[in-house]
Amino acid sequence: MEDKRLKQLVQRYLDGVCTPEELAALQEILRDSAYQERLEALLGEAWQDGAEGSVPRQDERSADEILRRILAHDRQKRPIWLSRWSIAATVVLIVSISALFYLRFGAGLGDNQSVVNTPLDADPGTYKAELSYDGGKPLLLKTSQEGIVMTERGVSYIDGTGVDLSAQGKPVKESYYELRTPHGGSYQVTLPDGTHVWLNAQTTLRYPARFASDARIVMLTGEAYFDVAKKKDDNGRVVPFSVITDQQNVHVLGTEFNLKAYPDEALTTTTLIEGRVRVERPVSGESEGGAAVILSPGQEAITSGTDDGLVAREAEASIVGAWKDGLFVFNDEPLEKIMQRLSRWYDIEMSYKGGAEHIRFTGNYAMDKSLRNLLEHITLTEGIRFETVGNSANERRIIAIKD
Residues spanned by CATH 2.60.120.1440 within the chain? Predict the structure, then answer.
């Protein structure tokens, strides 16, 4: 049996379309220890789903668990197509074909409710943002564009098309812009100094229409990746660039770093990719700081809203910025932390039962894929189930349950 056939059967099993005959063939193959050794690699390929890059794959424990469940599955029992009313009460999400049918048809659906209206079928995020200045009415930016470019002449999209802000009045040199992304949105901006910033979902970046000659200061809430342009003043000195958040002030000269500062998360984290940065705790919200650390590439600085500590440690820098390249990367993270990220991107709410929030997961997933498919993978490897709440198309809550 060639790897190609084994990979095909494994993928059909993971996708929930494996027939009883194919399941029997897969079980027969995997009883051979030589092919059991290939399962982990094939599961890793199936999980990556076309994503590229050096990222974690399924671990050995997950592969062993899926092997055990495939071999233990009763291939004589064909999957039963249940009514949508009975699915919510009778289908248990285990690693089997019936588990995948449950995720495909949803839980708690009324007869007139379409599957695509359930939170399990939430669409992935896309390019969405709004721009305002001086507290004026925000302008919704084009979703067909990835970002905007700020210059002294005005604002344009990346392709050079102008952004019409005439309805908001003409900004002055002292104006401050605010670029905001909602749940399920991301955007980019090139600042007046040439600094490139990627904004993740639910993020606000506040910056001046024109930077001062001796300092470049922006304010951030949420998560952003910065590629800071080097800029010199008239005397040839490099003008510092600073990012101000509630828990950290980050000062750089020219570098790449990721800064995560969501109000609903306990930790604020600055991860340095290139160059050097100084990270300090703000004093009474002012730019002058208290305790400070200087980071080298591959390090991160962490602060908590519950204490005054500032901790520097080694980071997985290649993983931290994966979101700006359209990839979720989970490295032995608890489900609660994972779903916190997913909730911003897919615009859903989460709750947990039976300690499901503590289950840990490793893998990577393309951000332009459906939520349903990602939850199927988590269910396959970790043995939990996901249920929707209510019958309303506006209900956005999913419950993760560990039995």
Answer: 215-315
